[in-house]
Write a structure and sequence with these properties.
CATH class of the largest domain: Alpha Beta
Function: Specifically methylates position 2 of adenine 2503 in 23S rRNA and position 2 of adenine 37 in tRNAs.
Strand order of the largest sheet: 3-4-5-6-9-10-11-12-13-14
Helix content: 25-40%
CATH superfamily of the largest domain: Aldolase class I
GO molecular function: 4 iron, 4 sulfur cluster binding; metal ion binding; rRNA (adenine(2503)-C2-)-methyltransferase activity; rRNA binding; tRNA (adenine(37)-C2)-methyltransferase activity; tRNA binding
CATH architecture of the largest domain: Alpha-Beta Barrel
Main location: cytoplasm
Order of helices and strands: EHHHEEEEEEEHEHEHEHHEHEHE
Largest sheet: 10 strands, mixed
Structural class: alpha/beta
CATH topology of the largest domain: TIM Barrel
EC number: 2.1.1.192
Bound molecules: S-adenosyl-L-homocysteine
Number of strands: 14
GO cellular component, one term: cytoplasm
Shape: elongated
Strand content: 15-25%
Radius of gyration: 22 Å
């Protein structure tokens, strides 16, 4: 790749229009090129058949299109598809297509590696190498939309930011990608079908509320007791539960959107009655529901999924307190595509 050339998709439509005007062309040419880049997903300037050869060459001389490349695609016995996605600088991230009877969900990455250090997550071991650009996030979604049409005969219906990385540590680019995904010039998807999942960065949760975003929020809680949460998610020492709680109350007051808490129950870590009671208390601060996720082992055996009695206890106590709870089974485990398993094993 020529490092002097700029990634053309980093330009807004206005900037592209300005560029063409400065080149002595019509600003309208900017709209045409923009449409090729975003609506039609052009991978090369030569794809742009209604643009003159000279103009295409001029674009070639000035810009690159840093498209992602799906390097390896694995299909699980349960239908889940995992893409290993190669970026222009040869780094790899993973994204997952999760089909159910009625929907297709894309699980996308927001960073290469992750800056957080959750003890139970395989991605945490990669460290954060860099943030993804908006177009690299958008491309993952487009790739999965294509696969959904190809294999399941229907377009993508939902997106979750639950792949590699902490989306709120790459907030601006995630927001730009979502803008593109939801705009009629991109995929035209409803923001209500998008979930951003965070380990809980209080300042950024408040910023999202101030920005009046329309997508949904999920928080990886895993424990409502500071001591326990810090032992499994060390950054909780910096952002303790009280500050998270305050940010979530702020979020709800501004957006009126209820929050989903993601929660894994591990043996000997958070499988006691006191753990459930703390969760019940935490859920009372803002309207919320709890998603109990199955644990996907990541090799070293330090963590173990709690016994089913513990999970039943969680379910009963939460329901008795009128808190909605769902128990989510893992998908794609055989190809390391399940929650917390994305670690570029290939
Ligand atoms: N950084 C974001 C999004 C990525 S993780 C976040 O923390 O929310 C997506 C979800 O998978 C999170 O709820 C995370 O806690 C959970 N997870 C991580 N490792 C897991 C594992 N080994 N088994 C099950 N869930 C896991």
């Amino acid at each position: 790749m020529d490092i002097k050339k700029k990634d053309i998709r980093a330009l807004t439509k206005e900037q592209l229009r300005d560029f063409f005007e400065k080149e002595g062309d019509k600003a309208f040419r900017g709209n045409q090129v923009y449409e090729w880049l975003w609506n039609k997903g052009a991978h090369t300037f030569d794809d742009m058949t209604n643009i003159s050869k000279e103009t295409r060459q001029m674009l070639e001389d000035n810009f690159v299109i840093n498209h992602i490349k799906v390097d390896v695609m694995q299909r699980s016995s349960d239908g889940t598809v995992k893409n290993a996605v190669r970026l222009h600088d040869d780094l790899i991230v993973e994204s997952v297509l999760i089909p159910t009877k009625t929907r297709t969900t894309a699980c996308v990455s927001s960073q290469v590696g992750c800056s957080l250090d959750c003890k139970f997550c395989a991605t945490a071991r990669l460290k954060r190498m860099r943030n993804l650009n908006p177009d690299e996030i958008y491309d993952q979604v487009v790739a999965i939309d294509r696969e959904s049409r190809l294999y399941f005969d229907r377009p993508l219906s939902n997106i979750v930011f639950m792949g590699m990385g902490e989306p709120l540590m790459n907030y601006n680019n995630v927001l730009k990608a979502i803008d593109k995904i939801t705009s009629p010039e991109g995929l035209g998807m409803s923001p209500k079908r998008i979930v951003v999942s965070t380990s809980g960065v209080p300042k950024m949760i408040k910023k999202m509320a101030d920005d009046n975003v329309k997508f949904k929020l999920a928080v990886s809680l895993h424990s409502a007791i500071d001591e326990v949460r810090t032992s499994i998610m060390p950054f909780n020492a910096t952002f303790p539960l009280a500050s998270l709680r305050e940010a979530l109350v702020y979020w709800y007051e501004k957006t009126k959107n209820r929050i989903t808490y993601e929660y894994v129950v591990w043996e000997g870590i958070n499988d006691k009655r006191k753990d459930v009671d703390a969760l019940v208390q935490f859920c009372k601060f803002a309207p919320s529901k709890v998603n109990l996720i199955e644990y996907n082992p990541i090799d070293d055996g330090q963590f173990q999924q709690a016994k089913s009695e513990a999970i039943d206890m969680y379910q009963q106590v939460l329901e008795a307190n009128n808190i909605t709870v769902t128990v989510r089974r893992s998908r794609g485990k055989d190809i390391d595509a399940a929650c917390g398993q994305l670690a570029n094993k290939g």
